[in-house]
Predict the structure of Acetyltransferase (GNAT) family protein.
Amino acid sequence: MITTGGLTAADRPAWENLFAGYNTFYGRTLAPELVERAWREFESGERMHALGARLDGELVGIVHFFTHPSTTSADVCYLQDLFTDTKARGRGAGRALIEAVADWARTEGCVRVYWHTQTSNTTARRLYDQVALDKGFMQYQIPL
C-alpha cells in the first residue's frame, strides 16, 4: 500500500537518489550545492516543500512544490518536481503524491495546483490527464 508524508533526515539518501533520477530523466545533473540548497529549503518548510511516497515503508516517490501569489486569484501551488522509482510505477505513487499536494494546497488556501511536463512524457501524461485539466498553455523561457 502507498502512503504519503513528509520527509525526515533519514530519508535523505533515498530522496537524493530519486531526485537524481528525476534530473537524469530531464537530461541534467545538478551541482551538489543545488541539491543541498533544496534539502535545506525542504527542512525549513518555509518556501519550498517536499513529500514522499512510501511502499512497504520504503521511499519510492518524491514531490516538490511551493506557493506563489497570483494577480487574478488567491495564491496558487506549483508542483515543480514529481518522480517515482520504476518499481513503484503503476501502483498509485504518483497519483497519491499529486493528491497529497492538492490536499496540502487546499489547507493553505490555494485555489489551484498546476505543473508542467514535456509533451513527450506520455507515461506521466496518462496519469495527468486523469487527475487534472490540460489548459493548453505552452511554456516559454529566457535563459539568464
Q: What stands out?
A: The mean pLDDT is 96.
